[in-house]
Design goal:
Blueprint (H helix, E strand, L loop, with lengths): L1 E4 L1 H8 L8 H10 L3 E4 L1 H8 L4 H11 L3 E2 L8 H10 L3 H14 L5 E3 L3 H9 L6 E2 L1 H11 L12 E4 L11 H6 L3 H7 L4 E7 L2 E11 L8 E2 L7 E9 L6 H16 L3 E6 L4 H12 L3 E8 L2 E9 L22 E6 L1 H7 L18 H4 L2 E6 L11 E6 L2 H4 L1 E12 L5 H10 L7 H9 L7 E10 L6 H6 L14 E3 L1 H10 L10
Parallel strand pairs: 1-2, 1-4, 2-3, 4-5, 10-11, 14-16
Antiparallel strand pairs: 6-7, 7-8, 8-10, 9-12, 11-13, 12-13, 14-19, 15-18, 16-17, 17-18
């Protein structure tokens, strides 16, 4: 594959100061996959215009190791049309010249951080061939799982004092907060959530509960008195593993346990990773509140209402609370799939050493469940109670989930596999997906996208479920989705000593 690197990517890579710390990971993957790094002649000319002659000299030497295109292609009619509409400056025209090489097929894809190029690419039908640093990393990690070192410890709680403050992972914090090191050292006896990639830190989360008398004088508009969970420090540098969702679930689990009214986070909107974080927060109900003054600029403040309310039409916005006015289904899942899909619902009899690797489907809040059930009338906001099969005494209910959407009427085996593997949210391998598709000639499987909402503290077994009248007989367990009632959910929560307040008021 020939990859054309825009000028801003070269600057990211070869500048003396690291602008985007994911650039090293990007180039590492390009080299591992033996892709050809191409640079356009106009990029060379743009680099020569730098004001510092020493920088120009250094950049010229470094760029000479890339594959520089030896000619400039004539603008195609379509690109010229787009250029006439969009381009106002010489840099704009150069961007069109670069994009033209992709349009005519001299290169296979373009990596850039330029928003205008993305607009042009959309007009040219090239949006699937133009990437940012982060979206290209997501693509590579999704397409090459066998090349990823997944031997990574799962999220663990660690004392600040045991975490290497000198790690380059924290450099972005040091740039944004002058007193970061001092603050970090004072937290030595407090707990943070950490995920490691080999020996390196790949994700970090610090949470703090704040009472109603907390001062918020630096936030405009000011907060009203409430018990809040502050997401104090949150960063992820590993993409394609759904770690953002994994950490969001940790945030929501703690908010539920601490019985807070609101969650908030302050974040700069400077780096691609921060922009991805803001996008993820917005998907799960965080809204922009205002700004917070800091010595290095203004942070954006995002807030998530955490009062006990659930919207069945927008379940991600009110996750993990369960709506009342909806249907409830009982559904079975085999042991070999259960803990792979729902790692927080692990049984005491299972070894957690078997699930310490960061596999995407384990980390995700949004999961894909595949079924051949005759009952297919599931809708957004419906509740699912998962039963881990095992017989009269060993079969137990473990998990409550919320339906996000259904994908039915899939036309072919390949379409089915493509849907399932695109986001890495299913536990099934390609071969297992093929087996599921071909199991019945006329009854094809469908996909349920669900939100992994709640793991039950204790696990009522099948005998108890039958004694309580929730399950009538063994036959029900083989029918796929079996409709039960909201009162059954309340009974299960009570028997499991769960948090009954998770059902919306």
């Amino acid at each position: 594959m020939r990859i054309l690197l825009d000028t801003n990517i070269i600057i990211h890579r070869e500048a003396s100061k690291v602008i985007n710390e994911d650039i090293g990971q990007l180039f590492n993957w390009i080299d591992r996959l033996k892709y050809v790094k191409c640079v356009h002649p106009v990029t060379i000319e743009e680099l020569k215009k730098h004001l510092d002659p020493e920088v120009v000299k250094t950049m010229t030497i470094k760029v000479s190791s890339y594959n520089i295109l030896q000619s400039v292609s004539k603008l195609s009619d379509k690109v010229k049309e787009i250029s006439d509409r969009f381009d106002k400056t010489e840099n704009d025209k150069n961007d069109s010249i670069v994009l033209n090489e992709l349009y005519i097929g001299r290169v296979d894809c373009l990596i850039t951080e330029d928003k205008i190029i993305f607009e042009k690419a959309l007009q040219l039908g090239l949006k699937d061939s133009v990437y940012t640093i982060d979206t290209f990393l997501v693509k590579i990690l999704n397409e090459n799982p066998s090349l990823v070192d997944y031997k990574v410890l799962a999220v663990q709680k660690e004392y600040f004092g045991n975490i290497d403050l000198t790690s380059s992972f924290f450099d972005s914090f040091r740039e944004e907060y002058a007193d970061f090191n001092k603050w970090f050292l004072k937290k030595s006896d407090e707990i943070a959530y950490v995920c490691r990639y080999g020996k390196d830190i790949g994700a970090f989360l610090y949470l703090k509960v704040e009472e109603k008398n907390e001062s918020y004088s630096e936030i405009i508009p000011p907060f009203k008195p409430k018990r809040r969970l502050k997401v104090g420090t949150f960063k992820i540098s590993l993409y394609g593993l759904h770690l953002g969702e994994r950490f969001l679930k940790i945030i929501f689990d703690n908010a539920l346990k601490q019985k807070v009214d609101e969650i908030y986070i302050t974040v700069f909107d400077k780096h691609p990773g921060q922009k991805l974080l803001i996008r993820l927060l917005s998907q799960f109900g965080f809204i922009f509140w205002g700004l917070k003054d800091t010595p290095t600029g203004k942070e954006q403040v995002f807030v998530r209402d955490f009062r006990h309310y659930a919207d069945k039409n927008k379940p991600k916005n009110t996750f993990p609370f369960l709506p009342k006015d909806t249907n409830v289904f009982f559904v079975s899942i085999y042991p070999k799939y259960h803990t792979e899909l729902f790692p927080d619902s692990i049984l005491r009899t299972e070894s957690n050493l078997d699930i310490i690797e960061n596999v995407p489907h384990r980390n995700a809040i949004i999961k894909e469940y595949i079924s051949h059930s005759l009952e297919r009338d599931l809708k957004k906001g419906d509740l699912l109670i998962f039963y881990r099969t095992g017989g009269y005494y060993k079969g137990v209910v473990t998990t409550i989930a919320i339906v996000d959407n259904i994908k039915d009427n899939i036309q072919s085996e390949q379409e089915f596999i493509n849907i399932c593997q695109k986001q890495k949210r299913t536990v099934l391998s390609d071969n297992e997906l093929k087996e599921f598709w071909n199991r019945f000639r006329k009854l094809k499987p469908f996909i349920v996208n669900l939100l992994y909402a709640y793991s039950l503290p204790k696990r009522p077994n099948l005998k108890k479920l039958m004694d309580l009248g929730i399950i009538k007989d063994f036959e029900q367990l083989h029918k796929g989705f079996v409709k039960i009632t909201l009162n059954d959910v309340k009974i299960v929560l009570k028997e499991a000593e769960g948090d009954e307040s998770i059902i919306s008021d």
